[in-house]
Design brief:
The protein is of the alpha/beta class and 436 residues long. It is 37% helix and 25% strand. It has three domains: 161 residues, 3-Layer(aba) Sandwich (Rossmann fold), CATH 3.40.50.720; 161 residues, Dihydrodipicolinate Reductase, domain 2; 84 residues, ACT domain (Alpha-Beta Plaits), CATH 3.30.70. The strands form two sheets. Strands 7, 8, 9, 10, 11, 12, 13, 14, 15, 16 and 17 form an eleven-stranded mixed sheet that branches. Bound molecules: L-homoserine (HSE). L-homoserine (HSE) binds next to helix 8. The site of L-homoserine (HSE) has 7 residues, from helix 8.
C-alpha cells in the first residue's frame, strides 16, 4: 500500500521528536500500520536544520500555507501552537480536505467547536492526543477505552511545571518565587511562566477532557482558573502535618446540578496515588460508573513522549482515511448530533471541602466565634487546630471543613473577616477526597 503523506508544521521540540520517532521506529510503525509514513513536506524557517533531520526526499518550505494546500499531503501535523497563524493554517488545511493531527490545546479549548464543525463538513478527522498530558494516551482512553461507561469525574495533574514547583516547595520548604527561579534554570519553566503557573495550560487540558467525558461542546470560558503563584509554603507544611499534599488539579465532575470545570490548588489525602505524583510527571484519574477508578500516569511533556502521542494519532488517522466517516471515532467521543451543552456550574455552586487558615487575636472566645460563623452557614468542621502563636498575641487557626457548597463557605469567610479579632484575609484552599 502507498505510504501516507504527512506535512509537518513546525520543527520545534515536538516537531523534531516526531521526525525522530517516525524515522527511528519506521519499521515497527509499518508493521502495525501496514504501510509507511512518508514525511512528505515540512514547514520551518530553518531549512538547514530541517535538511539535517528529515529524509532526503522531504520537501522543505518556509511557507506553511504551501503544506496545508499541497494536493499530495494527506495529513497535516500542526505543531506551531497557539491561536494565531496555527488557527488559520488548521482551518485552511481542513478546507483543503486534509486530516489534522495537532498538539494545540489552546486552539482546541478555545475554538474546538468551530473546528470540529468545519471538519465534519469537510469529512476530515481532527486528532489531538498530544494536546493533553503529553505521552499519556488519555484521549484514546476517554474516547474509546472507557466508551462503555457513563463518566462521573476526572481529576488530573496536567501541568508538569506547576507539579515540579509544588513538589520542590514541599520537599525543601522553599518559597514559591525561589523554586520558580530554580525551575526556570532547569528549563522546566518558561521565561514567562504565567501560562503554566496560573492554570491556563491545565485549564485548556481539563476543558478538552470534560467535553470528551460528558459529550458537551468544548467551553474554556466556563473553566475556573486559579494558579499556584499565591500559595504560601506554610500551607503546604500545615497540609502535610494534617496528612495532605497540595497539588494543582484540573477537575471536572458531573452532578445532577450540572458540570463542574475548574483548576486550582487542591489538598489531597497523602494516601491517594494522585497525591504521590511528583516532579514534572502528569497523572489523570477517571472515575466512571462501570469500571470505577482508573489512573493514567506518565510524562506530560518532552520531545519524545509528546511525539509518541503525535505519531499514534498519525497511525490512527492513516488507518481510518479510507473508512466511511460513520466508522470513525467521533472527534469529541460522542456522535456530533449528540454533543449537547449542559449547565456549567459557577464556582459558588460547586461542592467541595475546604482548608481554611485564619490569623486571629489569641484570646478567649475567638475560636468559638469563628466556629459559630461557620455553623451559621451550615458548614461542618472536620478538624480544627491552632498552629501556634506567632508574636505572643496572634494565633494561626487551621480548619478543615466537611463537604459543602462553596457559596456557604465563602459567606462564612466574609463574616469571619469582619471580626475585629481577625487580622488578615482568610486563606481558603479546596480539598478533594477523590471518592467520586
Ligand atoms: N507546559 C506544559 C507543562 C507542558 O508544564 O506540563 C505542555 O503542555
Amino acid at each position: 500500500m502507498k505510504p501516507v503523506n504527512i506535512g509537518i508544521l513546525g520543527l520545534g521540540t515536538v516537531g523534531r521528536g516526531t521526525v525522530e520517532v517516525l524515522r527511528g521506529n519506521a519499521a515497527e510503525i509499518a508493521r502495525r500500520l501496514g504501510r509507511g509514513v512518508n514525511i512528505f513536506m515540512v514547514s520551518t524557517r530553518d531549512e538547514a536544520k530541517a535538511r539535517a533531520l528529515c529524509p532526503d526526499g522531504t520537501r522543505i518550505t518556509a511557507d506553511p500555507f504551501e503544506v496545508v494546500r499541497h494536493p499530495e499531503v494527506d495529513i497535516v501535523v500542526e505543531l506551531f501552537g497557539g491561536t494565531g497563524i496555527a488557527k488559520e493554517l488548521v482551518f485552511e488545511a481542513v478546507r483543503h480536505g486534509k486530516h489534522i493531527v495537532t498538539a494545540n490545546k489552546k486552539l482546541l479549548a478555545e475554538h474546538g467547536g468551530e473546528l470540529f464543525a468545519l471538519a465534519e463538513k469537510h469529512n476530515v478527522m481532527v486528532q489531538f492526543e498530544a494536546a493533553v498530558a503529553g505521552g499519556i494516551p488519555i484521549i484514546k482512553a476517554l474516547r474509546e477505552g472507557l466508551a462503555a461507561n457513563r463518566i462521573r469525574s476526572i481529576a488530573g495533574i496536567i501541568n508538569g511545571t506547576s507539579n515540579f514547583i509544588l513538589s520542590e516547595m514541599r520537599e525543601k520548604g522553599s518559597a514559591f518565587a525561589d523554586v520558580l527561579k530554580e525551575a526556570q534554570r532547569l528549563g522546566y519553566a518558561e521565561a514567562d511562566p504565567t501560562f503554566d503557573i496560573e492554570g491556563h495550560d491545565a485549564g485548556h487540558k481539563i476543558t478538552i477532557m470534560s467535553a470528551l467525558a460528558f459529550g458537551t461542546p468544548v467551553n474554556f470560558s466556563a473553566c475556573y482558573l486559579e494558579g499556584i503563584s499565591k500559595l504560601d509554603s506554610r500551607d503546604i507544611k500545615y497540609a502535610e502535618e494534617l496528612g495532605y499534599r497540595i497539588k494543582l488539579l484540573g477537575i471536572t465532575r458531573r452532578s445532577e446540578k450540572g458540570i463542574e470545570l475548574r483548576v486550582h490548588p487542591t489538598l489531597l489525602p497523602e494516601s491517594r496515588l494522585l497525591a504521590n505524583v511528583n516532579g514534572v510527571m502528569n497523572a489523570v484519574r477517571v472515575n466512571a460508573d462501570m469500571v470505577g477508578e482508573t489512573l493514567f500516569y506518565g510524562a506530560g511533556a518532552g520531545a519524545l513522549p509528546t511525539a509518541s502521542a503525535v505519531v499514534a494519532d498519525i497511525i490512527d488517522t492513516s488507518r481510518l482515511i479510507a473508512a466511511d466517516s460513520g466508522q470513525r471515532v467521533p472527534s469529541l467521543a460522542f456522535q456530533p448530533a449528540q454533543v449537547q451543552a449542559q449547565t456549567m456550574l459557577p464556582m459558588d455552586e460547586i461542592t467541595s471541602s475546604y482548608y481554611l487558615r485564619v490569623q486571629a487575636e489569641d484570646k478567649p472566645g475567638v475560636l468559638g466565634q469563628i466556629a459559630g460563623l461557620l455553623a451559621a452557614q451550615n458548614v461542618s468542621i472536620e478538624a480544627l487546630i491552632q498552629k501556634g502563636v506567632l508574636d505572643g498575641r496572634t494565633a494561626e487557626i487551621v480548619i478543615l471543613t466537611h463537604s459543602t457548597v462553596e457559596k456557604h463557605v465563602k459567606a462564612a469567610i466574609a463574616a469571619i473577616e469582619t471580626l475585629g479579632t481577625v487580622r488578615e484575609k482568610v486563606v481558603m484552599i479546596r480539598m478533594e477526597s477523590l471518592h467520586d
